[in-house]
Amino acid sequence: KSGKTVPLNGYLEPVKYISLLSFRTWVESYVGLSVEDKSPPHDQWPVPAPNVNSQFWSALVSSVGQENCSTKDYDRVFHSHGHTCQEVFALRYGGLHRVVDAVVWPDTEENCETIVKLASEHGVVIIPFGGGTSVSGALECPSNENRMVLSVDMKRMNRINWVDASNMTAEIEAGIVGQDLQRRLAAVGLTMGHEPDSVEFSTLGGWVSTRASGMKKNVYGNIEDIIVNATMVTPKGTIERSCEVPRMSAGPDVSQIVLGSEGSFGIITKAVVRVKEMPPVCEYLGVLFPNFDSGVATMRQIAYQRIAPSSVRLVDNEQFQFGMALKPKAEHGPLWQMVEKAKKWYVLNIKGFQPNQMVLMTCMFEGTQESVAAQKAKVLEAAASNGGMNAGAEAGHRGYFLTFMIAYLRDFGLNFKLIAESFETSVPWDSVLPLCRAVKNRIGDACKRHGIQQKPYVSCRVTQTYDCGACVYFYFAFLWHGISDPPATFSAIESEARDEILRNGGSISHHHGVGKHRAKWLAGAVSSPGVSAIQSIKGALDPDNLFASANGPFASASEH
Questions:
Q1: Phi and psi at residue 341, in whole multiples of 5°?
Q2: Would you call 175 exposed, middle or buried from its count of C-beta atoms within 10 A (0-12, 13-18, 19+)?
Q3: 329 with 19: CB under 8 angstroms?
Q4: Is residue 455 a contact partner of residue 31, using CB atoms and an 8 Å limit?
Q5: Whole-model pTM?
Q6: Cα–Cα distance between 440 and 495 in angstroms, integer?
Q7: Number of neighbours of residue 384 by Cβ within 10 angstroms
Q8: Which of 76, 57, 73 is nearest to 65 (CA)?
Q9: Which residues make Cβ contacts (< 8 Å) with residue 310, sequence separation at least 6?
């Protein structure tokens, strides 16, 4: 009614029906964004005509059916990008450099074998496609590829083939989407426990191909801990192990060839995974700390004492303030609001926490009522020893809501000339604080040198924890006023940030993968002989480079 409301649409139920009264004020004051200064997307951009190998196409349509094949522009564009800010920017304002020439939707593993066989016979390039949520440039078509490029969309291969309750395993096809997998296993009282932030859209095959990690890895493990067997169709045949056993000593593990392959060797068709019984209780907890250092100390203590809940995350002050700005309009009565004001007064005046320094740790506990209570008590004891205080269940739950909101808000911000992205790393415990400080400073300095007029938004959070280190996420955004090529400027600053991460002992990536965006650092990360070994595997499985997505060690300098 006041004219200050801006609508935001989302798919998640919590996103659909909430009122974020404080967010506009915060983003206008902190980032300098103006909702009056809009950057609407272009209505359309020219899509190049498909480069169709007619003999291949005729054989493919005959084998899998016309209804499972397409050369329509919409289908081709949809399958030619992931979800980096650079790719989304190109979709809105300029178009993609190269678009796949056709799309096919296989329904069975036999379909996949046929597709690979025909592509081999006719010299057609294949790029596997899962949920399309890649943030490494892995789905971008190489701009210099002159052969026909076929996108193989796996979404129709979404079956749970069997569940073995005796051995707690299940065979699941690679195209199943994370949230569908969760629901269907929950219907029989089970869970795989893998829950990345992209769980709405990402697929099992995508998780395997990127060596993914989920927020509940403390209990269920990363994807490499969950996979018992994985199947991949390559030009030289189908790779899989002969049995579903918990461990096998048979030389180098062929499953490791599949994990992290990023579409370079073949099509991942299915996997046998470990499952567990659904926990009867799930509870959240938020813990406030006076500063980031004390929060990191608690995260390290929790990991060292092996008392980590299913998920534990620590956001810095910048992200804490962001989360507070996203706090929905209160639906409680006056009494509840008075209690909330009293809590705030206590935190600021009695505990002495400073608004521009305090941080929040969010926890998710799963198990029986007794085990959850015991674990929660241990976590609170560790937090108290570092000056932390219980902030309640709602604060903890809201932290996970923030995770899903960030993705929607990133794309929404493009409407108002705000370009943003997240990137992550893994780092030893003794380097967490120095790395976070150094990367934030490097981004700030780089923004000044690149002519960013407004103060950028830079924040970080510590997520997955290990005995010897943790995963750290960075969030970075700036307004592109006066910048002639915002994606290129963003890429240059992000590249400097990655250099600083590596200089401070961090990794090339914890779970997003390499793709094209991080390919230039790969040799330094795994050594030149390591890269040569990966390239040799490629030569053995795909000597004609049919899976020419140009990711990781196969990316050309022009694709970096």
A1: -65, -40
A2: buried
A3: yes
A4: yes
A5: 0.93
A6: 13
A7: 13
A8: 57
A9: 193, 215, 216, 218, 219, 220, 364, 365, 366
Q: How far apart are CA 560 and CA 536, in angstroms?
A: 21
The number of CA neighbours under 13 Å toward the Cβ of 289 is 24
> Could you tell me where the DSSP H helices lie in 213-308?
217-220, 223-226, 255-258, 292-304
441, 442, 448, 452: CA torsion to nearest 10:
-100
Query: Any bridge partners for residue 98, and if so which?
Result: none
**pLDDT tens by residue, 49-107:** 999 999 999 999 999 999 999 999 999 999 999 999 999 999 999 889 899 999 999 99
Rounded Cα distance, 531 and 175, in Å: 29
Q: Which of 400, 457, 473, 475 is catalytic?
A: 473
The amino acid at 498: R
Whether 150 contacts 124, CB under 8 Å: yes
Cα separation, 218 vs 309, whole angstroms: 7
Contact 189, 140 (CB under 8 A): no
Residue 299: both structure tokens together: 């995260």
d(CA 109, CA 555): 28
Catalytic annotation present for 400: no
Going from the C-alpha of 168 to that of each of 61, 158, 203, the distances in angstroms are 39, 20, 21
Q: How far is CA 486 from CA 315, 420, 449, 450, 491, in A?
A: 27, 10, 14, 10, 9
H-helix segments, 53-145: 54-64, 73-78, 85-93, 109-122
User: Where would I find the beta strands (DSSP E) of 262-310?
Assistant: 267-274, 276-277, 281-289
Per residue in 170-213, pLDDT tens? Answer: 999 999 999 999 999 999 999 999 999 999 999 999 999 999 99
